[in-house]
Each structure stands twice: as C-alpha cells, then as structure tokens.
Recover the amino acids of this structure.
C-alpha cells in the first residue's frame, strides 16, 4: 500500500508515495533517480549503500521507508559538487582513492559522518569508522590517506 | 633491422579507422576491444594514444567496447591489455600522426619533414597556420592499413607518460558516473531468475506449480516463466521482485546434490578423481643422473575461493525484430556474443553486445551468466528491455569458484646446498569455463533450461599462454633437473573458472615456501640463497629493491614478541611482471599483518599510479585470500553466500603497503594486474615461519590451522 512519506533529502523537503516497506535505497535509486548510492548486498553487511541519516552513516538497503519519515537524509549527491566539492571529494581525487569505485559512495558517506563528529581523526579512528565498508579492489590505504588529508 | 611482428589483433583489424577516428567535437576517439573492469585500463590506453599523437590525454576519448564497432580483442584478462591493445593502439596512433603530417605537407606544398607537430597541432615550416588532427583526418585516411613502420622505437623517451589522472575517478567521487546498474532505458522492466544451487537437480513439480501461481499473484509481477530448472519473473519494479522472491523455498523446490570434497580431505579428493595429466617441464641434464644430497618435500593447498566483488552481476537485454541487444560488464563481449548465439540459435550478427562498467572484476564471475539470464527472460518481455541484477546470495552461490588446488614440491640439493632437482606436481580442476571457446554455450543458464546444453568442463590455457592451474608451476631458479607435472581434475561438482592469477597463487606459495625452507634449513640467508639461484638480472633487481624499501638487512624496529618477516619472489607466468614482496606480521589471536612491501619491474609503465594501485590492490586481495578466505561448500552447493559467511579483509585488517616500481622505459610492458598475488601469499607464509617456527602450507592460514600446526610441532614456539 503506497503511503506518503516526508523527509529531508540533501537539504530539501521531499515527499514520496511508496510502500512503507520499500528500502530507502530502492526509493533513492528507483523513485528519485538518485543513483550514486549503490546496492551491494541488501543485507546491511557491506556499506556500499551508506547514506547519512540524522548525522549518522547508515546502510540504506535494509532501512524501510517508514523509518525515514521526518529524518534528514544526505546522499553523495548532497555531499558536494564539482563547483563546491566536499574536502573528501577533493582528497579522493587527489589520492586517486579508488579502482572500480563501486564501494566509494558508501565510504565517502561514512567518512563524511566521521569528519562531522571528529574533524581530525587518527588513522585508527578512520579504520574503525570504515569497518562496515567493504572494498575488494584493495584501495584501503589510499582511502585512509584521503580521509586524513580531508581532515587536515 | 628486422620488420616488426604484426600483433594478432592488428592482423584481424588492420585498418586505421578500426582503432581511431574523430569524435564530433574534434577530439580523437579510440576504440579498444579491452574493457574497464575497475582497473583503469582505458585511461592507460588513452595515455598511449596521447603520447604517440603528442596531444593532451584529455583530447583522447576512450569509447566503450561494443560488438557493433570495436575490434575483437577477446577477453580482458591475464594482465595483457597494455601488451595487446596498447601495442595496436600505439601502432595506429603513430600511423595516424604520420598520415596527418603528410596530409598537412600536401596542403601546404612542403615535404613531410618540414611539418612539425607542436602542442598537438601541425605547422609547416614557413607558415604560421596550425592545423589540428580533426581537420586533417578524412574517411579515406581511416580505411588505410596501419603501416607499422611509422612507429619509432620508444627507447630514450621518459617513462611516466605524464601524471594525468583517471578522469572517471572524479565522476565516481561526485556520483556522476553511470554504471551498468544505473542505466534506465525507456519501458525497462525488472527481471529475476531463480535457479537451484547445484548443477544437477530434480524439480518437485507440485511445489513448482504452486509457486508459479503464487508468484503470478504478487502485485507488480508481470509474468512468470518456467523452463527446465529456471524460473523467471518479470516485474514492474525491483521491489515487486523482492516481494516475489520471498515466496520461494528453494529446499522444497529443488533437490540437487553436489559431490563435493570435505575441506579436510581436499587433497585426497583432488588426487582420487579422474585426471588429465600433462608434463609441463621435463628437464634433465644429458647423461647425468642427479643424486641429491638431501631432499625436501612438502604439500601445499588452497580451498575454493570466491570472487566476492562488492557489486552484483547485472545485465540489460532487449529483443527487437529477432535482434538481441545486451548491455554487460563481461570481460569478453565477443566471446559472450558467440555463446549467446549458440544458446539462442541465432547468427552472431543478430546480437549486439555493449560493454558498460560494473564493479571490480577479478576473473570469470557472473557477468556472462547474468547476461544470458536477462536475454532468456527478455524473450518473454514483448520487446521491452529487461534489467536483471543478481542478489548478493545469488552472486555468491551462482558465480564460478576459484579452483581448489594441491601442489607437491620435492627439491633436492647437492653437498654444497645448491639446488639440484625440483619436482612440482599440481592437482586442480582446470581454471577456465569462460564462454566463447567451445562448441556449446558456457553460460550457466544455458545448462539449466528444459533443453540444456552440456556443462562445460573446466580447462587450462596452454602452457605457452601462461597455463592455468600450472601457471608458475615451473620455478624461476636455475636448477639442473626440473620436472613439472599438471594433473587436471576431470570432475566438477561445482563450477570453477578463472580467478585472478589462476594457479600462480598456489604455485608461487609452494615454490617460494620451499626455497625459503631449504635456505633456512641449511642455515643460508633466504635472500642470498634466492639470488645465488637466479640468473635474470631483473629478477635479482626486484629482490634487491624490496630489500631496500623494507629494510630487510636491518633488524626490524620494535619487532617485539610474535613478530615475523618473510620474503618471496615470482615473475608472473615466468614471462610477465617481476614482483618481490616482504610481509611483516605479528602473531595475535590470529595473524595480524603489520606491513607489506611490494617491488615490481613491469617494463615500460604507462600509467604509474594505476600500476601502483594494481600492485597494492593485488597484494591486499591476496592477503585476504591467503589468511581468511575459503568458500563453504556442501552437497547443497555454495553455502557461503553473504559477507558474514564469506568474510574478506576490511579496513581493520589491511596493513600499510609500500610499493616501488623499477623504471624500465626501454623494455616492453609486462602487465601489472596479477603479479603481486603469488609473492604476497608466499611472503606471508614465510613470515609466519619466521614468527612461529612452523611451516603452514594449507590456506587459509587461520588461527585454527596455526594452532594445530604449533601443537603438532614440538619445535614450535609457545607464543601462540
């Protein structure tokens, strides 16, 4: 049964008519055509679909829409733009901190949430904050350097 | 001077326009048959074209491969794209440059020698006008056959072809990059294919009938299709598909059994199957029987591995007027087209296969199979495009496994401790069930319809092409007597195929563990012992380089209790990139890597940052395989079908990695993608020996495995 659900998305009031059991990821990608958030497992295990909800990085693949009502959601599309990039985006380009990039959106959102609460994280803070983000290409060290650079 | 050998891809695609032409905006458009699988190869190819044309890399557009336009360069695999596609594009670009120079000379009435290329524009002596490529290229020029003599030797030119960054990295960081998964075609519907987890199975027809009815009644489901073991669902949305899939109880529906080995009996199982035995090397000094003074022997093992890409296999397919179009992240678009044609009984010309980027690909994964699934289901979609994306569980349960292996090494030394004999024997299934190579389609779904194609048995590439399970089974050292035998296991209860580096992961572990064991047993320094048995100066140089960056000759800083350090070397396929690795680790509850040092000689390096990224990524992936990974398999198929049951290295596990590349701008490129895999595994094994005094030989090197070894070895350290 489609229900109207209102929330804030990338700073704007948004309202969608969806099944409340649909996942936030599904609605972002298929209803709102915001495709930077990626489906990796649908089980909340890999972090590819991470977005920021009320200042916390969370997996959007297993987050039902009913739980998003009234929340403040930020996706990669809302993190920064080429004209006004987030320091993480600048740093990821500078460090060329990806190979395939499939896990990158989720990592950027987890790192952005970290920098909000801890603007100058140590290496171990970064490793801990990104523990829920899997990467198979093996760019972990580049990512850590980029997050450190963004925190400087 | 000898005429250059014409590369095979240029023989098949000899015309200039098959590789290069002009984009509408005047930039140069390059057409490679190789595809980006996350490794950034298209950027490296762009740099080659830009270098030969003497233009800014941003002026070169790399087109995505499609069977409608691109040269057929078979499969993007084996760390060969720079050598193959790069060589062809370099010849093409050199030809284009000189053809444009001649055209400019004609137009200006001067000799070609009087036309200079400055900042990407041609200028004839005595004139001020500068003309770009876009103005000089015409259709007649593009149909000419590429003349190899236009390419000047590269020697003397600098190595790094500029620090130009991969442009798509910014696209990905800003969320602008379109993966295959993001493509939304007009009228597109969503599909799902349900299938059993074993290759052979029975379907319970009563349960099936009930399920088909149930699926049809799920809101949003458009159509349910049944064919043999396959059940296809077409739906308006991904959500409807997810609701439908909740109706399926696989255990009730299918009853299949796979005759899989238990992990503890893997070696015995592999050795007791029907075998296809091949002698790879049989080298014996004439008239001389080698009698070793001392013989060392050990057996090494790897369980089945999983690709475990973060992305899901995905494809889009559309049938229109008997023509099929497929969007895929396959490594081989022409190979896929060939097998789709076999599966659907069509001429290949009726099928267009377009590449679109997927997530990182480390070998023959589900990309080709999901393309079949989409095409099979799209036949029932009335002309609508069908997007089909496997779920995580399907991804892990359906994709081919990396083959399990066991390797026996027996090495003999003379009275002075020098290597005299080396026997290496490999038991493994073949490492390839890729499509495009057989008489019947090598596509999972094509084996599961009501009129199934026979299951393709895994085979190995010829030894001359690097082999499969026998890859790197021949040691790189100078040894008078060498015997290498490969036993291809002719049983395949679960599908296996190519996984990054094929057999090199285990063969290098075996050889480099063995040489380390011999050296340390004889009281010789493991580095000096290797150097004494190498004659290739480039091999010695990468060992010296890894020693330099790791400080191998010095006492390790803050070594502490449980610290270990190990060294290993290999030349990938014995013909590709040279790579040496030092691993540093500490024994905690399990092995904790402290650092990896990687030194490599890749010949000419086109894109140094990309090469470093590949070397480091390979080392990290190999460390995860070696220390942590083994597919959990059972008679019901692959049981490890999510990230909890198949854990891989995460941010807490990955150690710092330092990479050094030895610059060889005057030598041919050797490939970067796979050469760090084997040496990383072996360096870890040797470091564990350094820390604990035991030789661990069965991967993964888990806490359990180590505990058993230490307990069974009286000389073992009590640290653990």
């Amino acid at each position: 049964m489609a229900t109207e659900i209102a929330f804030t998305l990338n700073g704007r009031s948004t309202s969608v008519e969806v099944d409340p059991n649909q996942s936030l990821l599904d609605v972002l990608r298929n209803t709102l055509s915001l495709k930077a958030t990626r489906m990796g497992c649908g089980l909340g295990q890999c972090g590819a679909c991470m977005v920021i909800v009320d200042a916390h990085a969370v997996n959007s693949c297993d987050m039902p829409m009913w739980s998003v009502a009234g929340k403040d959601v930020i996706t990669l599309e809302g993190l920064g733009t080429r004209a006004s990039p987030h320091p993480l985006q600048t740093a990821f380009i500078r460090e060329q901190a990806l190979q395939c990039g499939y896990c990158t959106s989720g990592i950027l959102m987890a790192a952005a949430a970290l920098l909000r609460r801890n603007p100058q994280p140590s290496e171990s803070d970064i490793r801990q904050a990104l523990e829920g983000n899997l990467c198979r290409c093996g760019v972990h060290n580049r990512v850590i350097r980029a997050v450190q650079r963004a925190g400087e | 001077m000898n005429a250059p050998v014409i590369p095979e891809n240029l023989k098949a695609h000899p015309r200039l326009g098959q590789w290069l032409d002009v984009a509408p905006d005047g930039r140069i458009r390059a057409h490679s048959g190789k595809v980006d699988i996350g490794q950034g190869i298209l950027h490296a190819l762009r740099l080659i074209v830009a270098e030969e044309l003497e233009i800014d890399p941003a002026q070169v557009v790399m087109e995505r491969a499609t069977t409608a336009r691109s040269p057929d360069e078979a499969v993007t695999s084996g760390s060969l794209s720079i050598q193959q596609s790069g060589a062809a594009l370099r010849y093409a670009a050199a030809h284009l440059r000189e053809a444009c120079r001649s055209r400019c000379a004609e137009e200006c009435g001067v000799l070609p020698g009087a036309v200079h290329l400055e900042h990407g524009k041609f200028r004839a002596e005595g004139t001020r006008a500068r003309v770009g490529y876009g103005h000089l290229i015409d259709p007649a020029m593009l149909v000419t056959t590429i003349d190899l003599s236009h390419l000047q030797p590269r020697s003397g030119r600098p190595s790094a072809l500029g620090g130009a960054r991969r442009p798509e990295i910014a696209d990905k960081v800003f969320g602008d990059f379109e993966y295959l998964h993001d493509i939304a075609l007009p009228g597109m519907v969503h599909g799902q294919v349900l299938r059993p987890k074993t290759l052979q199975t029975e379907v319970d027809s009563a349960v099936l009938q009930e399920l088909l009815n149930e699926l049809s009644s799920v809101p949003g489901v458009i159509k349910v299709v049944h064919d043999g073991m396959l059940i296809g669902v077409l739906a308006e949305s991904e959500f409807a598909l997810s609701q439908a899939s909740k109706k399926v109880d696989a255990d009730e529906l299918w009853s299949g059994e796979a005759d899989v080995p238990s992990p503890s009996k893997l070696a015995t199982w592999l050795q007791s199957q029907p075998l296809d035995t091949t002698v790879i090397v049989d080298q014996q000094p004439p008239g001389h029987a080698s009698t070793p003074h001392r013989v060392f022997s050990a057996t090494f093992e790897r369980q089945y591995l999983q690709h475990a890409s973060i992305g899901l296999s995905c494809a889009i397919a559309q049938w229109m007027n008997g023509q099929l179009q497929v969007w895929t992240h396959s490594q081989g678009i022409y190979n896929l087209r060939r097998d789709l044609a076999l599966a659907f009984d069509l001429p290949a010309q009726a099928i267009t296969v377009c590449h679109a980027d997927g997530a990182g690909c480390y070998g023959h994964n589900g990309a080709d199979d999901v393309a079949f699934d989409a095409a099979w289901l799209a036949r029932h979609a009335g002309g609508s495009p069908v997007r089909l994306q496997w779920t995580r569980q399907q991804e892990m349960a359906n994709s081919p496994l990396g083959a399990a292996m066991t390797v026996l090494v027996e090495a003999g030394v003379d009275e002075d401790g020098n290597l005299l004999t080396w026997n290496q024997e490999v038991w493994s299934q073949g490492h390839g069930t890729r499509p495009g190579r057989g008489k019947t389609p090598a596509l999972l779904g094509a084996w599961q319809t009501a009129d199934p194609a026979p299951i393709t048995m895994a085979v190995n590439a010829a030894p001359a092409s690097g082999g499969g399970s026998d890859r790197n089974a021949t040691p790189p050292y100078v040894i008078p007597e060498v015997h290498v035998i490969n036993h291809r296991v002719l049983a395949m209860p679960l599908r296996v195929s190519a996984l990054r580096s094929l057999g090199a992961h285990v063969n290098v572990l075996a050889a480099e563990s063995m040489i380390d064991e011999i050296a340390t047993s004889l009281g010789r320094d493991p580095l000096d012992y290797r150097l004494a048995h190498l004659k290739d100066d480039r091999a010695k140089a990468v060992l010296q380089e890894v020693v330099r960056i790791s400080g191998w000759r010095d006492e390790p800083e803050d070594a502490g209790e449980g610290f270990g350090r190990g060294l290993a070397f290999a030349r990938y396929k014995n013909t590709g990139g040279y790579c040496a690795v030092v691993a540093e680790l500490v024994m905690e509850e399990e092995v904790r890597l402290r650092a990896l040092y990687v030194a490599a000689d890749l010949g000419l390096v086109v894109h140094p940052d990309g090469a470093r990224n590949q070397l480091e990524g390979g080392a990290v992936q190999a460390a995860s395989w070696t220390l942590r990974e083994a597919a959990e398999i059972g008679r019901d198929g692959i049981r490890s079908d999510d990230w909890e049951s198949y854990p891989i290295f995460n941010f807490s596990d990955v150690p710092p990695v330092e990479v050094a590349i030895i610059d060889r701008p005057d030598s041919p490129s050797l490939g970067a993608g796979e050469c760090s895999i084997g040496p990383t595994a072996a360096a870890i094994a040797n470091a564990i020996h350094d820390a604990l005094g035991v030789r661990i030989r069965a991967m993964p090197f888990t806490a359990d495995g180590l505990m058993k070894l230490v307990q069974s070895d009286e000389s073992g350290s009590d640290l653990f």
